[in-house]
């Protein structure tokens, strides 16, 4: 038997499998086998009895790769106990959000240290290389002069690359708190899309005309959308057919959320990206830092919203990727009458 909480955490309709062993449920075979092992060890230690006797272990629940969306790795805290009559009790807690927040905090500290410890020496390195070139150029000629120019250019270029990397980490660590206010999301997207009118990969709009204002920081939403559109363009550029990028808004059935989706026709997300997408330094780009989606997640957490990554499929074929952001609908009655709605 199972309660709705267990079905929600495991993302499996457990009511369809009542009476079966846990490791017979499709998608939960590895987890069920692991649970059996934990109970066997617990019993082998002497069948502890009494109030509060239980075992507790963390478990990383891997996504079901057979599903269209795939999904991210989820971290569970699993507790087991023996009940009278020999039944087993299993209690699950999904601590994925807590672990994610701890990792984000740790990465923020790493970012601050990088910005402080690495950036300071970069300017003296660049200036020293340029001064050496200025001093030695009159004394050299031919291949020696060419080698000097090449070496100095390499130093300067690499210093600039390091500065860009450190700046990205600094920006991640210093991301300001969101200033939430009612925002007309459709108007904001219409403004953003004009910047991509001459893009090699076209960007189009598919807007729900009934979308109400959402509670958001307009500047940070701009940053997120630009980030996701750039990622989609980069992915589409590697596809055989570039297709288009679509910015779509839809109001949820409950009316309390608005979902903004960035949809492309590229090759989709690799499974490793779907599992660890929001951790800094997870990227498939040769020159990427992997901070883009981490910043998106951080901003959406500030908004009290949600972000979801899925691959779009036609049958078994991946036909693109979709990143969806869910914003809370603004209760404009709580805001000053006549105050402007940001766009």
Query: Biggest sheet: strands, sense, closure?
Result: 5 strands, mixed
- The amount of beta strand, in percent, is 15-25%
What's the order of the H and E elements? Answer: HHEEEHHHEHEEHEEHHEE
- Beta-strand segment tally: 10
Work out the radius of gyration: 26 Å
**Helical residues, percent:** 40-55%
Q: What spatial form do the alpha-carbon principal axes imply?
A: globular
Number of helices: 9
Distance between the termini: 50 Å
Strand order across the biggest sheet? 5-7-8-10-9
Poorly predicted spans? 65-70, 333-341
Looking at how many chains there are and whether they match, the oligomeric state comes to single chain
- Derived structural class: alpha+beta
Q: Could you report the average pLDDT, rounded to the nearest whole number?
A: 82
Q: Which helices and strands, and how do they pair?
A:
Elements: H1 4-10, H2 29-44, E1 55-61, E2 74-82, E3 88-94, H3 96-117, H4 119-136, H5 142-173, E4 181-183, H6 185-193, E5 203-206, E6 214-216, H7 218-237, E7 245-251, E8 257-263, H8 271-276, H9 292-302, E9 306-314, E10 317-328
Parallel strand pairs: 5-7
Antiparallel strand pairs: 1-2, 2-3, 4-6, 7-8, 8-10, 9-10
Structure description:
With 343 residues, this protein is an alpha+beta fold. The chain is 41% helix and 20% strand. It is built from nine helices and ten strands. It has a five-stranded mixed sheet with strand order 5-7-8-10-9. A three-stranded antiparallel sheet has the order 1-2-3, sandwiched between helices. Helix 3 crosses helix 5, helix 4 runs antiparallel to helix 5 and helix 6 (185-193) crosses helix 7. The longest helix has 32 residues, at 142-173. The protein is globular.
């Amino acid at each position: 038997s199972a309660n709705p909480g267990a079905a929600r955490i495991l993302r499996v309709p457990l009511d369809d499998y009542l009476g079966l062993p846990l490791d017979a449920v499709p998608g939960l075979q590895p987890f069920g086998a692991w649970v059996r092992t934990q109970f066997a060890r617990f019993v082998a230690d002497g069948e502890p009895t009494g109030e509060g006797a239980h075992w507790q272990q963390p478990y990383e629940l891997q996504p079901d790769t057979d599903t269209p969306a795939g999904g991210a790795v989820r971290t569970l805290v699993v507790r087991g106990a023996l009940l009278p009559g020999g039944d087993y009790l299993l209690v699950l807690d999904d601590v994925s959000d807590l672990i994610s927040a701890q990792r984000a905090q740790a990465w923020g500290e790493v970012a601050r240290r990088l910005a402080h410890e690495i950036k300071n020496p970069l300017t003296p390195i660049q200036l020293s290389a340029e001064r050496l070139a200025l001093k030695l150029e009159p004394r050299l000629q031919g291949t020696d002069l060419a080698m000097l120019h090449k070496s100095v250019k390499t130093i300067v270029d690499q210093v600039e690359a390091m500065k860009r990397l450190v700046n990205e980490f600094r920006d991640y660590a210093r991301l300001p708190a969101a200033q939430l206010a009612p925002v007309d999301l459709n108007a904001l997207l219409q403004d953003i899309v004009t910047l991509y009118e001459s893009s090699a990969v076209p960007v189009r709009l598919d807007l729900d005309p009934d979308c109400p204002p959402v509670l958001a920081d307009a500047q940070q939403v701009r940053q997120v959308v630009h980030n996701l559109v750039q990622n989609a363009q980069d992915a589409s550029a590697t596809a055989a057919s570039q297709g288009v990028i679509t910015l779509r808004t839809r109001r949820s059935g409950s009316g309390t959320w608005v979902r903004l989706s960035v949809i492309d026709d590229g090759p989709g997300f690799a499974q490793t990206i779907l599992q660890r997408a929001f951790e800094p330094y997870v990227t498939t780009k040769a020159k990427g830092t992997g901070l883009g989606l981490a910043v998106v997640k951080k901003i959406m957490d500030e908004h009290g919203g949600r972000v979801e990554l899925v691959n779009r499929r036609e049958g078994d074929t991946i036909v693109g990727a979709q990143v969806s952001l869910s914003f809370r609908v603004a209760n404009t009655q709580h805001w000053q009458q006549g105050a402007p709605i940001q766009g």
